[in-house]
Design brief:
Length: 275
């Protein structure tokens, strides 16, 4: 059972790992799932805005930042992270939730909707990956990225992996713009990044599977993102029956509380939104 007055920052044990979790606001649950080797710290401003709409639950995925990292941690999968998300929602009595996922987190969110449709009220997918057959060029690009990051780890050390990843997906100017505390935390996620890219990082679903996802979905692509990052979002928007694709200015680190996203969540929540 959920405590009457939850600690806004706490650890929740699910599926054999302890996940760092924080909550803000009240009402309909809004679950936030971050991208590869990242942290909810990058969502700080967005969480405050989203908390005006409902009960925001943000967590660091297994192996990342303030959550527990299995030892050894060589491989993981989108399915494993979807199982963690489902167990977390169960533990917090927070279902069905509006689920917002960025990049790898968007792939996890889609997998969650496929495997546990009763846990998901709506999806917001910020440049997620798709299945390999829906975006074959992206699959080649990400596989090459994983190889390049393993070379970075061998040459410059595991702590250099996060910066190399951010440079690849968001451009060389993104990393220096992060606060020093965030850079330090992300630099410690090198092993998690390699584990995510060494396992099944793509969506384990075909077009027929995706046609069964009935929840409303907003798929967001950024105008300045490289084509291999944009294309899966476009393909997924076409494959999901109740999805709408929007394009926003900027790069891959899309604001989870952008006006288009807030408007979509308001529309989904309707009259259930807290005063």
């Amino acid at each position: 059972m959920r405590p009457t007055v939850p600690d806004p920052h706490r650890g929740i044990s699910v599926n054999g790992v302890r996940l760092f979790c924080e909550e803000r606001g009240g009402g309909t649950p809004i679950l936030c799932i971050h991208g590869a080797g990242s942290s909810t710290l990058l969502w700080a401003g967005a969480i405050e805005k989203l908390a005006r709409l409902g009960r925001v639950i943000a967590y660091d995925r297994r192996g990342c930042s303030r959550s527990e990292r299995p030892d050894p941690y060589q491989r993981t999968s989108v399915i494993q992270h979807a199982e963690d998300a489902a167990a977390l929602l169960d533990a917090l009595a927070a279902e069905p939730a509006v689920v917002i996922g960025r990049s790898y987190g968007g792939t996890v969110a889609t997998c969650l909707a496929l495997r546990y449709p009763d846990r998901v009220r709506a999806l917001v997918l910020l440049e997620p990956d798709a299945s390999r057959d829906l975006a074959p060029a992206t699959a080649v690009w990400v596989d090459a990225l994983g190889h390049r990051l393993r070379e970075v780890a061998a040459r410059a050390g595991i702590d250099a992996v996060a910066e190399a990843l951010i440079d690849a997906v968001a451009g060389p100017g993104a990393w220096p713009s992060f606060p020093a505390e965030v850079r330090r935390l992300l630099s410690g996620n090198g092993q998690a990044i390699l584990a995510e890219l060494s396992g099944q990082w793509w969506l384990p679903a075909d077009t027929a599977d995706l046609a069964a996802v009935g929840q409303p979905a907003l798929v967001v692509a950024a105008t300045d993102s490289p084509a291999p990052i944009r294309q899966p979002a476009e393909a997924l928007a076409n494959a999901l029956p109740n999805a709408r694709l929007v394009r926003v200015d900027g790069g891959h680190l899309i604001d989870p509380a952008a006006p288009e996203i807030v408007a979509f969540i308001e529309d989904v929540l309707g009259s259930t939104r807290p005063a």
